[in-house]
TrEMBL record:
Signal sequence extent: 1-32
BP-aspect Gene Ontology terms: maltodextrin transmembrane transport; maltose transport
Superkingdom of origin: Bacteria
Name of the protein in question: Multiple sugar transport system substrate-binding protein
Pfam families, A to Z: SBP_bac_1 (PF01547)
Keyword Magnesium listed: no
Amino acid sequence: MSSSAPPPRRRRRRRSLAAATVLTCAAGLLTACGGDSGKPVLTWYLNPDGVEVLDGIAERCSTDRYDIETELLPTGATDQRVQLARRLAAEDDTADLMNLDPVFVAEFANAGWLEEMPADTLTDDTLEGIAETVRWDDKVYAAPLWANTQVLWYRKSLAEQAGLDMSGPVTWEQVIDAASSVPDAKVGVQADRYEAYVVWINALIQGAGGDIISDVEAGKDASVDIDSDAGRAAATVIQQLAGSSAAQGDLSVSREGTSLPAMYSGPGEFMTNWTFVYQNYKGLVGGDITEEDFADLGWARYPATVEGEESKPPVGGIDIGVGAFSKHPDLALEAAQCITETESQVRLAVDAGLMPATQSAYESPELAEAYPADLLALFQESVDQGGPRPKSAYYATISSAIQSVWHSPESVDPDTTPKESAKFLSEVLEGKALL
């Protein structure tokens, strides 16, 4: 259990109060209610990452003037968006606080669903890679809670066996060739038909100097750029992996968690994945893996799409938004400030592997004790030098259109896939085709 999570008895009591509140409010689904004390209750919708830590933060940030109750969102980012969008489109006044995947901030802000945040929500202390995700129309509409990125995780013994020098940048082609040269070695990615597959595609395209779409301020009239040399370079990488012996057996349905076991199975793997991986494997020591196994874990910057060009690691994380229809917007803004304090960010990093959005949190002695210094430096570098997904009010449409053409990965062809996806995405944005 997380050291910052509330005691089990206390957490059960809070959830019992929430259940009682639901019964009391059954006659008015969209009406906010207070707890037994008469204090306002702020509902905070959580994505299912670091939930125990977030429950503890909700407990800590509750005050004599309001309580914070937590509600769990679905697992996938797209499903999270759908549930929140439905509530906000219905002007649900119980959507006080919400965890938002950064790519949905622009859409929600553009729709008028988020309260504007104070100008000082972002400071020089905020890492720029995540700060950019909460800006829309020259205003700030969310507060960064944690900043995610992907790095290349690998078995040191596998790299040595394959003869791959990991002391400098490596390319996707080199990684795939190295894994293919060792029987049963794999390359772990996320290629199911869901948001993380677009994360991979976007990083590959940006790593080749291109973009899926540009001039995003033009909305539906934005420039679709995926049919380019960069788009073809991205498709080449996917085609190479899908056709190699290093591809996961479940490549077309692979997700963040499905490739984790392969790291310590047989010779191991090279795997692009988020920051949580280190704490995940550390927690297995003494059970599924040994200290020697854990010491064999290596990390490096996200692979380059094109040799000689810097990679663009994915940038993700979670931003906290305040619902525009909340009955208590001032209290919710105050709660958001507490939720995103340095103390909260440090707890998420140490206990859940979800890394900070601020420099000061990275400098915490607790982080220095929990993580190797070079890994912390790699995380920060990857966030600040990484590539965000398109910041568009139509991002959900863009993502779905890309998924529909690029999936499955076994069907990707550099000669046809970028051109086909550009045509389909343009037609969808113009209203000439349906998803």
